[in-house]
Amino acid sequence: MTTEQAAAVLGGLRAAGVRITAARRAVVDALVAADEHVTADDLAARVAASHPDVHLSTVYRTLDALERLGVVTHVHFGHGRAVYHLSDRLHHHAVCEECGAVIELPSDVLVDVQARLRRDTGFEIDPHHFALVGRCRACI
Length: 140
Hints:
By secondary structure, this protein is α+β, with helices and mostly antiparallel strands. The protein is about 45% helix and about 15% strand. The protein has helices spanning about 5-15, 20-35, 40-50, 55-70, 110-120, and strands at about 70-75, 80-85, 90-95, 100-105, 130-135. The strands form 2 sheets. It has a 3-stranded mixed beta sheet, with no helix packed on it. It has a two-stranded antiparallel ribbon with strand order 1-2.
């Protein structure tokens, strides 16, 4: 991930009226640098490595602000903690309940399910918020 991406995220925060503090900048930098899905605790640990004064509550507040702006998405992988990733490449997730493998699925994989639920029940799902849980190819 790039410095330009971090600058864009910080610019979005600034445009939304969010003050850019050193702590928020550190959270954004750590999130952009992450090449995987991270929990808030993972992110706090990464931030603490270079900014030990940044509290976990600051990480959560920053993630909440980024999510409200649509920059970050959080996903629940089964019964575990929520994980976060940048929203620039939305995708769905499948999680193996046996080995814990996470498989990224194309963003259109649930389009038919969404349409059917909307049509049949009037219910609108947020498919990016949860993972499909089952067993991967190696564990079947």
